[in-house]
What does this fold into?
Amino acid sequence: MEIPILKIDNCLVVSIQGSLTDTAALDLQENLARDISQQEPVGVLVDLTAVEIVDSFVAKVLSDISSMSKLMGVKVVVTGIQPGVAITLIELGITLDGIRTALNLQKGVDFLRASY
Amino acid sequence: MESMQEINVHLENEFDIVSARQAVRNLSKSMGFGLVDQTRITTAISELARNIVLYAGEGSIYLRAINNGLRKGIEILASDNGPGIVDINLAMQDGYTTSRGMGTGLPGTKRLMDEFSIQSSPGEGTQVVVRKWLR
It folds into this structure.
């Protein structure tokens, strides 16, 4: 169950669908690191529109993906966090302060486009 | 308290965590919980299920619809025979982790649910019971 990493213009796009296993989340992090290094994108967009829950483990991986991409010199934006997911994350005590987010895919693409 | 239906999910790997999430999502949805409460309950169970797989290796989650005469609700028991928790007060503190996680699992789960109780003793496992009532 590998999550596809797509390239459009000079950005990498990941759309996470449905229920994520822990291994799939960790694999995504490693595969993204590899693709960032090989494909030299300007930005990375991770879309969560189709994700129904984000627990503390997935939040940690998202946070790590964001830090990792920044360290490699690539802008990251996480898009489409659903209302129930946002409320739940706050109650869990997770604010994901270090992560750039956008309301939806379009606004995320606009943000990355504005920066290159 | 009258019990209606009970579902048992055995946990020993990460796919079982996904199964537990799906089972509780389906039950809470069929009971009439709103989307945000479904998300709260499902996330809470994901945290409890991961704790079992991570710390105890295996265990079970029992889901059932409950009724206290006034309100309907959902009750989840997460039970394992793992090493147990030495200091529950410490485990309930935000930011405390022994697994490089975020340290939000147990205190976060408590905030997501209406009722939370935990029993654990070293060498004898851990039992967590959480409830959420229909509004």
About this structure: The two ends of chain A are 32 Å apart (CA to CA). The helical segments of chain A are 22-39, 56-71, 83-92, 105-114. Residues 5-114 of chain A form a domain with the Transcription Regulator spoIIAA fold (CATH 3.30.750.24). Chain A is about 45% helix and 20% strand.
